[in-house]
Amino acid sequence: MNTYKALVKDLAPKKFHKKDQLWMLFLSVIIIAGLVAYIDQILQGQKVTNMNDYALWGIYISNFVFFIATSFVGSVAVAILRLTHNNWRTPLVRIAEIITVVSIVMAGITIMIDMARPDRLMNLFLHARLQSPITWDVVIIPTYIVISLLLLYFPLIPDFAILKNYFRKKKPKLSKWYGKLALNWTGSPAQKAIQSKSIKIIALMILPVGLLLQTIDAWLFSTTYRIGWDSTNFAPYFISGAMVAGIGGLICVIYVVRHYKKLEKYITDFHFDKMGKLLTLVCLIYLYFNINEYVIPLFTAKKGEATHLDTLFTGSYSVLFWVVTIIGLVLPIIVLLFKNGRKPKSMFFIALIVVIGSWWKRYVIVTPTLLHPFLPIQGVPESWRHYFPSFHEWIITISTLAMALLLITIMVRYLPVIPIQRTADELGLNKKEQEENIEL
Amino acid sequence: MKRSRISHTIVLFLLGMTVFCLGLQNLSAQDNSKNKVRLKVDYVKIINGDSYLDISTGARIDKKNVSVPYLDLLIYNETEQDEIELGTITTNPKGKIKFVLPELRSMLPDSSQIYTIKVAFKGNENFKRASKSVSFKDANIAARLITKDSLNYISATLTDAYSNSPISDEHLNIQVQRLFNPLKMGEEFNNTDDKGMVLVPIEEGIPGIDGNLLIEVVLNDNDTYGTIKAIVEAPIGKVIIDESTFDKRTLWSPRDKTPLFILVFGNFLIFGMWGIIIYLIVNLFRIKKV
Question: What is the ipTM of this complex?
Fold first, then answer.
C-alpha cells in the first residue's frame, strides 16, 4: 500500500468540509470584530485603550513579544534539527515553517496596531537611528519575514510540481497555480543542486537571524534601565522562552492537523515522543533562566526592584506569576518526564498549557515593570496605578490570535503539511512512478 | 390747588433724587468692578553699565495674587516743580519689564540730591489707575581684585556719588555669578568700614569658563541708594574642562553622529543578510530557467 500514489493522495491538500468552513467562519467573525475595534481605535485614538502615561506598553506589546517568540520555532525545529541531522523532523518541519511565517507576519501587524499613528510607519525607516534598538527591530522583523518565506518556499517547490500534476484533471485552476509556484520544476540535477544549496543556506542563516530577532526583542526591554527589565540575562531568557512558546505552538498545531487530516501514519507517537523530549529540554533551559532572572535579584535587589519582586511573588500579580511559572512551566516538565506524558493527546494538552502560559508570561514581563516607574506615581487618577486591558484591547488582541489561526488554516488547506517529495525520497518509493509525474 | 403743586414738586424731587442716586451707584459699581494694580519698582545701578528700573505688575483677583501682563506704563522723573516724562513701556507676558534709565546727570534730583522716578498706570477697562514712586541717591562701588600672600581678595569701596564721601556700615554682598543663583563669598554680613571699604577673601578652586570668574559686589535694595552692583572679572577660577559629547559620536547622538562601530557592524549585518537574501531570490529565478 506504501506506494508513491498513495503517499501523494494522503499528503495532497484536501477540500475543506463543513466543520472546517465553520471554523473559518468563526475566526472571520472574530477578525471582523477586531477590525471594527481597530478602526474605532484609529478614529478615537488610543484613549479607547487602558494604556496611560505609565502602562504605555500594554497587552499589544505582550502579544507582539509572544508572536516574536513563537516565530522562533523555524530556527529551532527546522534549522537546529537539520544541522544536528535529526531526520525524524521531516513530517514536522512544514508546519513549523508555516507557524514561523504566520507568527512573524502577525508580530509585524501587532506592533503596527500598538502605534497610535500607523500612517507614520515610514518615519521609522526614514528617520531611523542605528543606535536605537527600535531601529534594529524595524530592520530585523522584515528580514525575518523574508527569510521565513524563503524557508517555507524553497522546500515546497518540488511539492508544487507534484501537486500541479496531481490536480491537472481534477482541478485545473488550482493545478495552474501550483504550476506557477513550481517554477518549472522537473527535478533535474541542476535544479536539485540549486534548491539543496539554497535550503542549506537558509537553514544556516535563520538560526543567527532568529537569535538576533529574539535578542533585539529582549534588548528593547533591557536597554531601558527599568526595574525588572534591566538585566544582562534578558536575551538568553527571551531566547529560551521563545523556544518554549515555539515548540509548544508547534505541538498544538501538529496534533490538530494530524487529527483532522488523518496523518497518524506519518506523524506517529514516535514523533510526539521526540517533540516531548525537546519540549522538556527547552522548558528546563527556560526554568534555569527564570531562576537566574528572579532568584538572584531576590538577594541583591535594591528597594525599587524589591518592591517589584514583592508584587510578583506576593502582591497583585502573584497569582498570575505563580500560575504561569508552576502550571505553565514546572508542571509540563514533570508530566513530560514520563513516557505516558509524551503521548499525543496528553502532549497536546500540555503544549496548550505551555502556549497559554507563554502568552501570559509576556504579560507578566511587560505590565508590572511599567507600573513601577523610577519616580512615585502621584498627581494622577488612581486608575493609572493599575492596568488591565480595555474591551478594545482584548477584542483586537484576540482577533490577531484568530488571524494567526486563520492564516495557518488557509496554509494548511492549500499547502502539503508534510513534505511529499522528501517523504517519498526517505521512504525510497518508486522512483519510476515519480518520474512519470503521476496524475490521479 | 397749592397743596397739589407742593406734593407734585415733592414727587418730582424724589424721582429726580432716585435717578441721580441710581446713576451714582452705577458709576460706583463700574469703578468697583475694576481691580487694583500693584506696582513694584526697584532701582538698580550697574557700575560701568546701565541704570534701570525693575518693574513688576500684579493684582489680587479671586483671592489669588496674579501677575498682570501687557500693561502700558508711563515713567516720569519727578522734581519739586514738575514731572518730566522719561518714556513709556509695556509689561511682558509675565507682568515684568526692565526700563533702562537715561544717564543720571541728564535727570533732575531734588535739593538733597535725591532722584524720584514715578511709574504710572493710567487705568483701563479692567484695572484702576495706579502709580508708584521710587527715590534714591546716586552711589558708586569701586571694586578690584587684589592678591596678598598668594591669597585673592575683593576690595570694594562704597561712596556717595555726589559728595564722593565713603558710606560706612552698609552691608555689601560679595558673590560669584553662577547659572542659577550666585555663590556668596565672605562672611554673612560684610559691612563697610569708616572708609566705606570691605575686603573679602575669594576661595580657590571655584570653576569658571576659561578660569574666569565674574565676581559681583552688591549693595542690595538699600533704602537710600537702591541696588548698586559692580562686576569684577577675575581670572583666578579653576578652568572648566568641556566634557560635552554634543559633537561626538555617542549612543545618544542624532543619527548623523552614530558611533562608527555601530555603523560598520550594523551595516555589515544588514547588507550581509540582505545580500544573502537577494542571492536566494536569484536562485529562485535560476531554478525556473534551468
Answer: 0.91
